[in-house]
Amino acid sequence: MKYYFKKFAKQKIQSEADEFVWLLYFVYCSLMDIEAHGGEIWEHLKRRIKDFNFDKRTVTRIKNVSTFLLRNLGDDISTAFNSPVSKIKMIQVKDFRGFGSGFNGDCKGVCIDFDSNNTIFYGPNGSGKSSLCDALEYKLTGQVREAIRRNRRISDYIKRIGSTANPSLSISFVDDAIDGERLSESEKNYYSQAFIEKNRIQEFSLFGSKDTGIKKEQILSILIGMDDLSNLAKAFVQPTAFRTNLLSFKRSVVANKIASLNAANVSNTTLKKEHEETINAEKTKADTILAKTNATIADLDAELLKLDEAIQATNADTLSLSSVTVHSHTQQDFETAIQTLESNLQKFDELNTALIAAKTDLSFSNLYTAIQELQTTVTDSCPACDTPLASVTKNPFTKAAEELAKLQGIKEQEAEFIAHKTLVEQNLKSLESLHNYLNLNRTTITILNGLIPSGTPLHTASPQYSLSDRNQIDTTVSAIRTQLSTISNYFNEVDSLQQRQSHKQITINANNEKVSEFNRKKRAVESIKTNWENAQTKLDTVNLALGTYMTDLGELNTEKVVEDTYNSFIDSLVTAYTSFYTQLQTFKDTEFQTRFGKLESEIAGFYRQINKHDAEHDAVSLFKINNSDSDYKIEFQVKGSTVLEDASIKFSEGHLRSLGLSILLANAKINNLPFIIFDDVVNAIDSDHRANIIEMMVNDSYLKNTQQVVSTHDRLYWERFSVENQRGQFKSYILKCSMQGVVHYHYKLDFKEKIQNALDHFDIRQALLYSRIWFETIAKQYCMENNIQLTGTLKPNEFHVAIEPSLGSIYRVLKEKLTDNEHLKVLHTDEINYKGINQEHHSFDEFNFNFIHSRTSTEVQKIFEAVTGLDDDIQFLKNHDTILTNLLKSYKECCDKLKTLNARMPIHIQNGIIQKHDEILKQLRDFPTRMTKLKIETSLIQLAEGKIKKVLIGNIVSALMKKNGMI
Q1: Inter-residue contact 186 to 83 (CB < 8 Å)
Q2: pLDDT at site 848
Q3: Which of 300, 563, 637, 822 is disulfide-compatible with 254, CB 3.0–4.6 A?
């Protein structure tokens, strides 16, 4: 599409208005977007216009756009094609559609040479014919029509299935001045007309059919390679749809900002009043709390500073009043505690003595319990002796009751003792506490420490008293009582310290109240200050917005000018699009009519050659392509008639296909194409016309001078084509698609030449294929010439029934006849599998392609050299006598030349003669050894040795005699 758009744009850019040029610019950019990202031109065009960064420098911009378009349209777009043309010389393909990548990076792909006249490729369906034609089309035109027809991305269509590598193609022309890697748009468009595919002819056979839903214009444009122009014209919507879409692109962002700015200005006026009221309220509070008028935030800050200082001073005073706590006690407290303790100890001793005296050896408590249980027994006899109660002196149960009363007093006495013991222990704890408080005062208050003499009981902590150690209690308590009278100064000092501490606490409590009041006032001041500052900040923001309102409004009005200009630009594009759309459709119709006018004069000539055997009354004299009523119609006139008939109605499907091929050939002729590529075209034409097509391709004045690249899966057509072209130059290839990709081989070239050519182009697979076929040819020829029997299997192949010898039988025979042959060992290691060979066509079967270890060009070179060596060995076995005769003759000639050496002879000539002599001499010396290795009869070896010795000795004797002057 880009080619035809450039042609259209170049006609209009200098004469149309600026808006029209802008449309040309947008469409060109959209076409570039399609190349990069795919998609539809209309979608890219809308996006380009919508996102366009338009400014007010319209005049400058349109000049830049015009310059940009003129530069990119180039000078190669013209009515006539003036670039140099050439026939195709070679194409190399790798990882493209059916073509594989070989074994590794050394392989550069399949290299195919084309004859400058005719080149035919034969192969069944799936062999790679279309892949080859697609490769030529992609390299020459930058696209593949079949990919477009199937609505697939070109990058996906051309990639080899299962391969991650990118396709690689290179093409060269007979004219080395043409660079196949840098074809211009016009060259690509020109070469796109050189491809004639079966599908295009089959589609044309549906011309006029309503069932297909395909318009006649579309079928015709595809047929003559003008579908890009047709698609370009169809890519644009009607002016009404364009208007609807573009009007939605008009911009209102700035207008909306202006509306928002005006609304915000009204809102800010209200907010200003609210913030001012808040500030005034906080000022009133400040005046009250500070007891002054017109207080400011600075006054609040000063007040906060004063409050902080007051709080710090009060807390410091409180801290200075704090001291170590004095535990208050008096001498009387000690004496009372001791007196109470001693009194209770005395009673404790008395209770203990009484309880001990009252107890017996029995456990009265248990006895008491037993008597209680006895009283509950009901019986008529004594429980101790079973004497009847009536006969006893004193009733045992009465006696038990009397004794039980006594035991009850013992139990109550024991309970009193336990209770008093607990009271004594509490008295001991009280004394311990007083003692320890005294010791704590002594250790924490320096002035008291010196009032308790060292080494006295009260100079240390109190011991822990226990009633089990009465001696300790009595001793310690007695010592403390004695010491109390000596430390009256201590008790006096404690009383004095306690009084001072009480006065300080009153002051501390007062200070704490003052700090609390200070903090309350501080919080109130801080609240006023915070509310005032927040309201002031908001007021400042509002004032700023109110102050910049006019400035912002002015800037937005300036931006709105650009926005309004863009919207006006959209309106101008809408207006210009109507003219653009109309002129593009007119351009398309003109291009078609121009092409049709040229075609009409040539179509009939090709059609008559294809249908030369039609009856006289069916012979067509002319064709006319009619575009009246916007409905394309191909009309024809038979010989001797003046009536124009509609071909889509009168022609059979076979004749419509012939007409389609004729139109394609006429299109090639009027464009003077140097080559034509036929992609399995013959399959679209019925068999009755194929002989006529071959005759036309050989004898037509235009076609016979045009390079024809033909692919077919019709074997009969291939053979006929080959026979007809034997009088001139042509090349014939056979294609087959293997698991590793498409392979081909030439139908005529010598094997060495073919293998070396493949290796020179790093076409490793092709070199392997030729090496396999050459090896089988050598082996089978050797067996036939020596009348050697081979075992094989009678089986049908693609073309005929043949007996194919087994791989094992070939190797067994060669191993037996050529024992320990080093070249055969190399080939046997890589096991060249022969089973896929077809003796008539050397077709290739991937599943029998069994070079196990060969993976690089170096290894293939090794196999090639091994096959060459094996061929040399077999030729040596066959002609060793002749070879020896020629060697002996050459040796004598070298010896004669040695005799002519002199100092005046150039050194390189002397070295050449000596080197050749040494080489032949080495071959003669190795000759018997080689005969031995190849198991030649001993008698023949001895005969050869005799001939060699005779010549060598004769030359040595002659040299000695000459040296001694004897001759």
Answers
A1: yes
A2: 40
A3: 563
**CA-to-CA distance for 851 and 738, rounded, in angstroms?**
14
The domain spanning residue 117 has which CATH number?
3.40.50.300
365 with 477, same domain: the answer is yes
Judge if 532 and 434 occupy the same domain. Answer: no
DSSP secondary structure letter of residue 167: P
The domain containing residue 741 runs over which residues? 88-215+632-662+675-699+707-746
Is the pLDDT at 793 greater than 70? The verdict is yes
Q: In what order do the strands lie in the sheet with 195-197?
A: 195-197, 675-679, 707-712, 118-122, 730-738, 741-746
Domain annotation covers residue 221: no
Rounded Cα gap, residues 915 and 604, in angstroms: 70
| One-letter amino acid for residue 741 of the chain | G
DSSP string, 715-746: HHHHHHHHHHTTTS-EEEEEEEEETTEEEEEE
Domain end residue (candidates: 56, 80, 104): 80
Please report the pLDDT score of residue 87 as a whole number.
92
Query: Which residues are within 8 A (CB) of 337 and not within 5 positions of it... i.e. 6 or more apart?
Result: 427, 430, 431, 434
Mean pLDDT, rounded, of the chain: 80
**Distance (Å, whole) CA 646 – CA 637:** 9
Residues sharing a CB contact under 8 Å with residue 960, sequence separation 6 or more, in sequence order: none
Regarding whether 736 and 819 lie in a shared domain, the answer is: no
Q: Do 28 and 64 belong to one domain?
A: yes
Q: Which residues pair with 169 in a beta bridge?
A: 93
DSSP 873: H
On whether the CB atoms of residues 636 and 623 are closer than 8 A, the answer is yes
HEC string of 349-399?
A: HHHHHHHHHHCCCCCHHHHHHHHHHHHCCCCCECCCCCCECCCCCCCHHHH
346, 314: one domain:
no
Chain centroid to Cα 373, Å, comes to 101
Tell me the C-alpha distance between 326 and 493, whole Å: 10
Same domain, 760 and 821: yes
- Burial 572-598, CB ≥16 within 10 A → b, else e: bbbebbebbbeebeebbeebbeebbee
Tell me the average pLDDT across 557-563: 84
Task: Count other C-beta atoms under 10 Å from residue 102's C-beta.
Answer: 25
- Residue 42, both tokens: 């209309």
Q: φ, ψ for residue 338 (rounded to 5)?
A: -70, -45
Render pLDDT for 461-503 as a digit per residue (tens, 0 to 9).
889 888 888 888 888 888 888 888 888 888 888 888 878 777 7
Distance linking the first and last C-alpha atoms of the chain: 91
DSSP conformation letters of 278-333:
HHHHHHHHHHHHHTSSS--HHHHHHHHHHHHHHHHHHHHHHHHH--PPPPP--HHH
Cα–Cα distance between 208 and 214 in angstroms, integer? 8
The CA radius of gyration of the chain, in Å to the nearest whole number, is 63
pLDDT at 2 over 80: no
φ, ψ dihedrals at 838, nearest 5°? -110, 120
953 burial level (CB within 10 Å; 0-12, 13-18, 19+): exposed
Whether 868 and 917 map to the same domain: the answer is yes
Q: How many CB atoms lie within 10 A of CB 942?
A: 12
Distance CA 297, CA 303 (A): 10
- Output the DSSP codes for 795-814: EE-SSSEEEEE-HHHHHHHH
Burial category of 383 from C-beta neighbours within 10 Å (exposed 0-12, middle 13-18, buried 19 and up) = exposed
Burial track 358-374 (b if 16+ CB lie within 10 A, e otherwise): eeeeeebeebbeebeeb
Q: What is the pTM of this model?
A: 0.48
664 vs 685 pLDDT, higher one: 664
Stated as kind and residue range, the H or E segment containing 793 is strand 792-796
Residue 549, pLDDT above cutoff 70: yes
Residue 485 token pair: 């009278």
Nearest 10 degrees: Cα torsion 715, 717, 720, 721 = -110
